[in-house]
Specification:
The protein is α/β, with parallel strands linked by helices. It has 18 helices and 12 strands. It has 3 domains: about 140 residues, NusB-like (N-utilizing Substance Protein B Homolog, Chain A), CATH 1.10.940; about 55 residues, Sun protein, domain 3 (Alpha-Beta Plaits); about 200 residues, Vaccinia Virus protein VP39 (Rossmann fold, 3-Layer(aba) Sandwich), CATH 3.40.50. The strands form 2 sheets. Strands 5, 6, 7, 8, 9, 10, 11 and 12 form an 8-stranded mixed beta sheet that branches. The two termini are about 35 Å apart. About 45% of the residues are buried. It is an enzyme of class 2 (transferase).
């Protein structure tokens, strides 16, 4: 359940004219094409589009690709109205990102049309479509109100998700489903974790106030910045005073029982936020596993910035022979692969990259990890299972199956007065906190805490 900071700026960078919009539209069209044809993630699409783009255009590329992804259903429906048959790639994707640019309101209609035509003319393989691109975008500008009124009747356009995703949410959450789906349409909050080894939440809030940065405390170690800003501009980030991490994700380090001196395993650790949080809270030793070498490198980079140390291993957590010494751990954090259905507002490509069978398939992977990792938990020790999914196959159903399969496992409270498992639905409601441990603003997550029976006691 890796949750990253949302990279999409609220507005394109002020120096967006440093790189022609036509070049950025072409780069964004490449990214969209990879997402549609190869199932590339939004992050991968941005990276691919950035390769041949001057650095000054990356902010605009982010805005275009995130904007196009947040309007996937709308641009798809508009093209179906504007064309009898969609043109071949990359022209189809260029039209999508151009329509998204028009919908954003960040450029004049003339600018977008002109630059989209320039983009299609700049490649010999697509130059013959310049007239088509010009006609489609100009027709959209003439008929904007009627076109949007027509396509907005579709639930897919309303919630920017495929129909199967919408129906599944409604089947699971009934009357609450619309609020969950609508949460996925909003920009995510910018939440940071205060490194309590270096400062306190109160002192950090005073630092932000002095710097003129509006913020508020969320939960225990979390602070929400009320106005977005680049990560590198966050006061204290460079010196490791704070890290970007959703308040709901931060609960993992609070829910997992750890004492100073304990040996802890973070089984699926990238990008390292929870590993770092555990080390900030406790004087423990952490083994952080990650199967992807590049993502494992990010763990080390994050720990270095914070001045923390862990044993970072590139390994498949389920293949114990490749990494486990045979010495059991006091506590294990299993942040399992999942559909990421709880973090759509942060990863708007998720509903479009998933298929109806994915929750069941990923639940199978989770059971395999449960089976593999339970033996590494010391008798009397704990395993915290968490995902950023809100589908029951990857949450409450998974817990029931694990308890049936592991007679020495019991579900124990996540904390005093709390149940043994918890589903958090994404919210940014400005409401009073009913429990000071639980933030009022967070993404969607599932948590469950297990204890291994200690037959010696």
């Amino acid at each position: 359940m890796t949750v990253s900071a949302d990279l999409s700026p609220r507005k394109p960078r002020k120096n967006r004219d440093a790189v022609p919009l036509s070049a950025v539209l072409s780069a964004a069209a490449l990214g969209r094409r990879l997402m549609k044809e190869e199932g590339a993630s939004l992050v991968s699409a941005v990276a691919a589009g950035s390769k041949n783009l001057p650095e000054g255009g990356r902010g605009t590329l982010l805005a275009l690709l995130y904007g196009a992804t947040r309007r996937t259903a709308t641009t798809k429906a508009l093209l179906a109205e504007l064309l009898e048959r969609a043109p071949k790639e990359p022209v189809s994707s260029l039209l999508e990102v151009s329509l998204a640019a028009l919908l954003s309101g960040e450029w004049t209609g003339f600018t977008v049309v002109n630059q989209a035509v320039e983009a299609v003319r700049s490649h010999r393989s697509t130059e013959r479509f310049a007239g088509l691109v010009n006609a489609v975008l100009r027709r959209y500008l003439r008929e904007t109100d009627s076109l949007l009124a027509h396509v907005s009747a579709s639930p897919e356009v309303r919630f920017n998700a495929p129909l199967w995703w919408i129906e599944r949410m409604k089947a699971v959450y009934g009357p609450e489903a619309e609020a969950v789906l609508e949460a996925g349409l909003r920009h995510p909050p910018l939440t940071i974790r205060v490194n309590t080894r270096k400062t306190s939440v109160d002192d950090y809030l005073k630092r932000l106030e002095t710097a003129g940065v509006p913020a508020r405390a969320l939960g225990l170690d979390a602070v929400q910045l009320l106005k977005p800003c680049p990560v590198e501009a966050i006061p204290g980030f460079a010196e490791g005073v704070v890290s970007v991490q959703d308040a709901g994700t931060q609960l993992a380090a609070h829910f997992l029982p750890v004492s100073d001196g304990d040996a802890v395993l973070d089984a699926c650790a990238a990008p390292g936020g929870k590993t770092a949080h555990l080390l900030e809270k406790h004087r423990c030793s952490v083994t952080a596993l990650e199967i992807d070498p590049e993502r494992a490198r990010r763990i080390t980079e994050n720990l270095d910035r914070l001045g923390l140390n862990a044993e970072v291993c590139v390994a498949d957590a389920s293949d114990l022979d490749t990494w486990w010494s045979g010495k059991a751990f006091d506590a294990v954090l299993l942040d399992a692969p999942c559909t990421a259905s709880g973090v759509v507002r942060r990863q708007p490509d998720v509903p479009w990259n998933r298929r109806p069978g994915d929750p069941k398939a990923l639940a199978k992977t989770q059971r395999m990890l449960f089976k593999a990792l339970w033996p590494v938990v010391k008798p009397g020790g704990h395993l915290l299972f968490c995902t950023c999914s809100i589908f029951p196959e990857e949450g409450v159903d998974q817990v029931a199956k694990f308890l049936d399969a592991a007679p020495d496992a019991s579900l124990v409270p996540l904390g005093e007065g709390l149940e043994g498992m918890m589903t958090l639905l994404p919210t940014d409601d400005d409401r009073p906190e009913t429990d000071p441990r639980l933030p009022a603003v967070h993404d969607g997550f599932f948590y469950a805490l297990f204890r291994k029976t200690d037959h010696r006691s």
